[in-house]
Specification:
Two copies of one chain form a homodimer. The first copy, chain A, is an alpha+beta fold. Helices cover about 45% and strands about 20% of the residues of chain A. Chain A has seven helices and five strands. A four-stranded mixed sheet of chain A has the order 2-1-3-4.
Chain lengths: ~160, ~160
Amino acid sequence: MTEKDIQFMKRAIKLAQEGMNSNAGGPFGAVVVKDGEIIAEGFNRVTSTNDPTAHAEVVAIRRACEKLGTFQLDDCIVYTSCEPCPMCLGAIYWARPKAVFYACDKVDAAKIDFDDQFIYEELDKKMGERTIKFTQILQKDAQVVFNEWDSKVNKTEY
Amino acid sequence: MTEKDIQFMKRAIKLAQEGMNSNAGGPFGAVVVKDGEIIAEGFNRVTSTNDPTAHAEVVAIRRACEKLGTFQLDDCIVYTSCEPCPMCLGAIYWARPKAVFYACDKVDAAKIDFDDQFIYEELDKKMGERTIKFTQILQKDAQVVFNEWDSKVNKTEY
């Protein structure tokens, strides 16, 4: 942990505070850093923008990608005031930064009634045992499109 | 599986095809249904909009919430042409629809080189064993904000 790491995490925590105080959403903030500089910031905006995906990390990642003009966060570091929920962890893996620093963890989040831990548990369950019912239909129809993708020539992979 | 379910899934698969053909992104489509009607549609737009979070389900969920003016998809059903990746699964749990139908699964996705299966495996690993390094710092500083949230009076929970 360097002085810079502390500085960037303090900024993420400050954003969590700002978002909470302005009633933007829950108490979560995040920044994306590249080459030692913050290139994007975000705090949770779920309830104020009616967007359940507007978690701090997702907001910061989307802004960072927009700024960089790419869908990949090569050589970037994400600092988030709380351990990413499964959605944000997925977003991080798709964006592929080189590292993540977090402050509070999912146990802390559960204590203030956020569902992170519950969702992690649901992910480990078989489809039929989940709280939200998942049903597979028309697999063969959809596989046709996947096969077309597989043989498509002019495609951008990610 | 009803006739309606088939109809909605066929629409999701059609969207996957359209998104792929127009080079919006990967071959994935989704619709959100409420009271027997499609209220929002989406296809993957990752590469065309430089947004790693713009998976079909996330796009459709965000649009559905915007249309309904809420951050919760009460009584809604999500139809997606492929089993949701961890990010989309997380988004679904936060949006809380009542059910999900999917067509292709994560094995099909892995066959055409999408990372879903890899990310599911990463989620099950301990922090220190993950491909992307996760480090916890300044937990106590961030807990201060969580405690303020806990005692905050005028807050919208989600």
